[in-house]
Amino acid sequence: MPISAQALRHEYLRHNKKFPHVWCPGCGNGIVMGALLRAISRLELSKDEVVLASGIGCSGRMPTYLDFNTLHTTHGRALTFATGVKLANPALNVITIMGDGDATAIGGNHFIHAARRNLNLTAIIINNSIYGMTGGQYSPTTPFGSKSTTSVYGHIEHDFSIAELAVTAGASFVARSTVYHADLLDRLIEQAIGKRGFAVVEVISNCHIQYGRRNKLGGAVDMLRSFKEKAVTIQKASTLTPEELEGKITIGVLADRDLPISTEEYKKVREKARAARRQK
User: GO molecular-function annotation terms (predicted)?
Assistant: First the structure.
């Protein structure tokens, strides 16, 4: 049964930790955090059953605020720590929260191979097209031609799609939403946590300070409105031409499939090895 925002805050926030938060006013990270809490509440998970791991960046501060088992790890390594936790105790619900640079630049190989292995955990990736906390450098998702502190005359590299990369790499569940579509984001995170296998939710978010300001995209409200205007559901996208989809953001579930779970396959290997040893 859904509970009120006040009850969510009382239940899940560490009230004596680092408040007020460090995020800029209007940042989408707060919307993502609220969606995560509502999803966990609807799934009726005990706080002791949840592990939240993050890397470095604006999103990396989220475990500081939330009263779960939490890990604030090194840059790009949230998934490696999460893998260790899941191998040690497969019964835990392990969730990682990462930014686009954290997950797909220095953490890119970890992300690809976590999807390939189909680890039974959830990866939430907040994609704001920039390195927000560390100074506004371009990331793997910074659009071609955009300005950043490391591309002051326009970015010359092409961005890639995090969600489509996850599908190709072999994740069981892949979805995308924006911080404007908060209700959809709630449902997608709930589906991802409940999915057996590696589940990825890419969240298109706004960094109106480091990215929006440099690229004349307006403030937080302006950027959220642009997400509303650009968003197209997966179902609608299937009826459009590539030209019509240019500049659009497809939202919804991109992949939902059942594949062997890495931790379960690893357990089978251990049992075979023990059986072979007993026979000697």
Answer: oxidoreductase activity, acting on the aldehyde or oxo group of donors, iron-sulfur protein as acceptor; thiamine pyrophosphate binding
Domain membership of residue 60 as a residue range: 5-279
Q: Is 270 helix (H, G, I), strand (E, B) or coil?
A: helix
The two tokens of residue 182 are: 């908060």
Q: Cα torsion for 187, 193, 197, 200, to the nearest 10°? A: 60
Tracing tokens 């997966």 back to the chain, one arrives at 234
Banded model confidence at residue 1, pLDDT cuts 50, 70, 90: low
Identify whether the C-beta of residue 201 lies closer than 8 Å to the C-beta of residue 177.
yes
| pLDDT number for residue 8 | 83
Residue range 116-139, pLDDT digits in tens: 999 999 999 999 999 998 899 999
Average pLDDT over residues 90-105: 96
Give start and end residues of each alpha helix (H) in 55-161: 62-65, 78-88, 100-101, 108-117
Pair type for strands 249-256 and 199-204 = unpaired
| Model confidence pLDDT, tens digit, residues 165-194 | 999 999 999 999 999 999 999 999 999 999
**pTM of this structure:** 0.94
What is the distance of C-alpha 238 from the center of its chain? 24
Q: CB-based contacts of 228: which residues, under 8 Å, 6+ apart?
A: 178, 180, 181
What is the domain count for the chain?
A: 1
Tell me the pLDDT band of 263, cut-offs 50, 70 and 90: confident
DSSP class of 47? G
Sheet holding 69-72, edge to edge: 69-72, 50-54, 93-99, 122-127, 199-204, 173-178, 249-256, 231-233
- The pLDDT score that the predictor gives to residue 166 is 97
- Domain CATH number, residue 185: 3.40.50.970
102: which 2 tokens?
A: 């954290």
Within 13 A of 242's CA, how many CA atoms are on the CB side? Answer: 0
